[in-house]
Specification:
The chain contains 9 helices and 8 strands. By secondary structure, the protein is an alpha/beta fold. The termini are far apart.
Length: 317
């Protein structure tokens, strides 16, 4: 084996070292330049991002700003009615300067008995399935033209939460006055429309609207019907329900007061008071009937129609 001599080894090392140093140095310089360029690009990107965040909102805030407010409940009801009911039956009407919707179902009987005006509970659709929608479709088979009203929304702030009873009563009365003013204009327009048809006027109203109408009739603010059917009539305070019992007892309108076995708590508590007051007042054309129901707030359809027909017959209609 041949060994390298020391001079030869040193000669090779010396001749090779500058080239290696140059290569290593060049690679180090290139890497440093690349790192500087990368850092410069990152800094520029961060600066640009910062400028954008100062001048434009973030995506979440922008999306939230573009969300449209929800459609009002009345507009939802109106839209549903226009889609589910034949357009030839839907009639927009004017109450003062405000529009409201009605559904007019002509009678299809050989004899005309009159017009049945149907008013659901406030904040309910005109096609309310608990009772009104069935009557809207059924009464025309017995000779009634039905005009179903899309009711107003429940008035805000009722019942009052004021601590003192006197103040609560005052606030409730203000709310009543404002609501009844709107309801008066609606009922006046509908009664004028009903006058175009032959026969008598029957009004069927539900819940708080039934109680509101009873009060309007007692004050002669709205033309009285020939017969009045209330479905679970009530209001939302003890004093208002006591007043309702007195109003019904003093009324000269023949009234069929229909309640349910499983009903609103206000109805369950004050229905007996209405019956007792009517008997004391010797009101001849007042009748109270209770139906057994399996779903809270829902009336047995056939029994309801039969009861209304039988009662109208007994009072001469």
């Amino acid at each position: 084996m041949k060994l390298w001599s020391l001079p030869s080894f040193l000669l090779i090392l010396i001749s090779a070292s500058p080239i290696s140093f140059i290569v290593v140095a060049q690679e180090s310089t290139n890497q440093e330049n690349a790192n500087q360029e990368s850092n410069s690009q990152e800094a520029a990107a961060q600066e640009k991002t910062g400028e954008q965040s100062e001048t434009t909102p973030n995506d979440g805030a922008s999306a939230a700003a573009n969300i449209e407010p929800p459609v009002s409940l009345i507009e939802q009801f109106t839209s549903d009615i226009e889609r589910s009911v034949s357009q030839e039956l839907v009639t927009p009407m004017l109450a003062g300067t405000e529009n409201f919707l009605t559904i007019t179902q002509p009678d299809n009987h050989q004899s005309d008995k009159g017009v049945a005006i149907l008013l659901p509970e406030w904040s309910q659709p005109a096609t309310d399935a608990r009772a009104i929608n069935f009557l809207r479709q059924h009464l025309p088979t017995e000779g009634w033209t039905t005009i179903t009203i899309q009711p107003l929304l429940k008035p805000e702030g009722y019942p009052s939460l004021a601590g003192r009873q006197a103040l609560a009563d005052e606030e409730n009365q203000k709310i009543f006055d404002a609501y009844q003013t709107e309801l008066t204009t609606i009922m006046t327009s509908v009664m004028e429309k009903a006058a175009e048809y032959p026969g008598i006027f029957l009004v069927v109203a539900q819940g708080n609207n039934a109680a509101m109408l009873a009060d309007l009739y007692s004050e002669d603010k709205v033309d009285k019907p020939n017969a009045f059917v209330t479905l679970s009539a009530h209001l939302l305070t003890p004093q208002d329900n006591k007043n309702l019992a007195d109003i019904i007892a003093d009324s000269d309108i023949p009234t069929l007061d229909i309640i349910l076995k499983r009903d609103n708590l206000w109805v369950e508590h004050f229905a007996e008071t209405r019956l007792r007051n009517a008997k004391r007042a010797l009101k001849p054309y007042y009748r109270q009937r209770e139906f057994t129901n399996f779903r809270a707030g829902y009336y047995p359809s056939e029994a309801l129609a039969k009861e209304i027909k039988g009662w109208l017959t007994t009072i001469g209609w």
